[in-house]
Amino acid sequence: xxxxxxxxxxxxxxxxxxxxxxxxxxxxxxxxxxxxxxxxxxxxxxxxxxxxxxxxxxxxxxxxxxxxxxxxxxxxxxxxxxxxxxxxxxxxxxxxxxxxxxxxxxxxxxxxxxxxxxxxxxxxxxxxxxxxxxxxxxxxxxxxxxxxxxxxxxxxxxxxxxxxxxxxxxxxxxxxxxxxxxxxxxxxxxxxxxxxxxxxxxxxxxxxxxxxxxxxxxxxxxxxxxxxxxxxxxxxxxxxxxxxxxxxxxxxxxxxxxxxxxxxxxxxxxxxxxxxxxxxxxxxxxxxxxxxxxxxxxxxxxxxxxxxxxxxxxxxxxxxxxxxxxxxxxxxxxxxxxxxxxxxxxxxxxxxxxxxxxxxxxxxxxxxxxxxxxxxxxxxxxxxxxxxxxxxxxxxxxxxxxxxxxxxxxxxxxxxxxxxxxxxxxxxxx
Length: 430
Ligand code: ATP
Ligand code: MG
What we know:
Bound molecules: adenosine-5'-triphosphate, magnesium ion
Strand content: 15-25%
Distance between the termini: 50 Å
Mean pLDDT: 92
Number of helices: 16
């Protein structure tokens, strides 16, 4: 028989890990909700053109990383490699901005890029991110960056750095492209094949190159000079970050995001725990994207955090969120109770079962399964491994008397002869 395997670069999230994911998701949803962001969910598949037009032909994503296929109607479809394009599409299609109000959205979900799998680089990975739309003020850039910094702290990542830069307006970018073309053309013989392609198609992308030899050339490239307005917006953002939001940052004049739609302020968060692939989050302003996609003139900014890399950073910084609280887990061990005993004691067990349901409604996790072949000793070991805080032991003795034995794994106490009727009142853990 063929043994099937998950596709390279796409991983299962197994039960033990998914508990951490769930805790992280809960904290994440509550964080963004309490900061005034509402969730948006869009389909995983979109027409290919949406990404080609928004992210740009010469970006690494469109050039070589998209999962694109023909559907049964011979239309070209793509698994989403990122969310901004999908969110912009949804905002326009559903007319989400009717009045001149801002719109604050967040999302969590899987993204797909056909990259070479390695540490920190998967083919299916997950992102959580925000888009703040119809928010032209530099205050919104500073707010988004500060939100990212605060989020990282809330999930227990301390060792991060924020880098910021401005890409200027389209006019600045056009002038900068000319300057860069002149510079890199002189050096073109020493550039890698990808950068030669970028020089032709979109010279800004050369800054994204991960090749050592290209880096020497990139390091000496002339920096971008933003126009008066873009320069002063950038100064305002820096001042707000420093004085209002209390966020430490570095200005990195070589920070150029790998997608075409960015204008103005772009930023990245890196984490010491990540090694070479150290970017945990990235984002920036995209003032023209929605307009260029046929929507209204809606300036916007946003960021995306890679959840797999976030989890690595959390591990490196020993985030408390990674530790399973032993709080609310109760394991029921039936000791030597077979089906015949269950029938004989059905009334007592009926009352016991109702009490367990009440405990579940109060948020306790209750393990109650019929496993007559497993010894009490093995069950206790299993309960400990599962992270139970308490075990309720029921044997024929207990059932005859209508009582239970309670083992508390935290205080290491064992109490006998507790009336089953007291079950709900006993578990008052916070
Ligand atoms: P990189 O420079 O590492 O390729 P990127 O510029 O392609 O990153 P973005 O498109 O800005 O990344 O995505 C935002 C975040 O999503 C990244 O900072 C990273 O944490 C995460 N991410 C991107 N691609 C992958 C991937 N293939 N596997 C895991 N996480 C990823
Ligand atoms: Mg990439």
